[in-house]
Amino acid sequence: MQTTIKNIRFHYKYRDTANYKEYGALIFSNPDQLSIETVLEKLKAGLIDQEYFIPSLCSIPLIHSFPFDPELDHEWYALDYLEETEEAVTDSRDIGTFIQACIDGNLHTQ
Fold first, then answer.
1. Could you give the CA distance from residue 68 to residue 35 in angstroms, rounded to a whole number?
2. Can you give the pLDDT at residue 79?
3. Hey, CA dihedral for 17, 74, 52, 98, is it positive or negative?
4. Backbone angles phi, psi at 96, to 5 degrees
5. Sign of the torsion angle spanned by Cα atoms 73, 75, 76, 77
6. Cα–Cα distance for residue pair 72/18, rounded to 1 Å
7. Of 58, 57, 47, nearest to 98 (Cα)?
8. Rounded distance, CA 83 to CA 93, Å?
9. pTM
10. DSSP 91
11. How high is the pLDDT of residue 109?
């Protein structure tokens, strides 16, 4: 029996100062067959307060549909949750490369 390598869907959200929430998701390949628990543990270790990140530092598309006001709004996004999926990847990076990019990008903000 052949095991299907499942991709990882990374769900994230943005909450502006008026508490409006917007959601995004990316799907990464998972060639090393990392478990959700392992991915979550590694990812949280590199995030601000184990939850937040600056999307440009992780090369994540912005999800602002409302006008961005730099005097009121912020750049931080939050990890929402992870899940396995058999859907096609939407990002050319594998999950390990993505984790490393988030760690490297967000380290100097802590």
1. 36
2. 95
3. positive
4. -65, -40
5. positive
6. 9
7. 58
8. 17
9. 0.87
10. S
11. 52
Q: Which tokens belong to 24? A: 């995004």
Tokens representing 3 are: 């095991």
Amino acid at 18: A
Spatial separation of the C-alpha atoms in residues 99 and 27, rounded to whole Å: 13
Question: What is the distance of C-alpha 93 from the center of its chain?
Answer: 12
* Amino acid at the residue 81: Y
**Any idea what the Cα angle at residue 49 is, between residues 81 and 26, rounded to 5°?**
30
With tokens 């869907």, the residue in question is 9
How far is residue 60's CA from residue 64's CA, in Å, rounded to a whole number? 12
Span 73-107, pLDDT tens digits: 888 999 999 999 999 999 999 999 999 988 887 65
* Full 3-state SS string of 13-57: EEECCCCCEEEEEEEEECCCCCCHHHHHHHHHHHCECCCEECHHH
Q: How far is Cα 63 from Cα 43, in angstroms, rounded to an integer?
A: 20
Question: What order of strands is seen across the sheet that includes strand 21-28?
Answer: 21-28, 7-15, 77-85, 52-53
Compute the distance between CA of residue 28 and CA of residue 32 in angstroms, rounded to an integer: 12
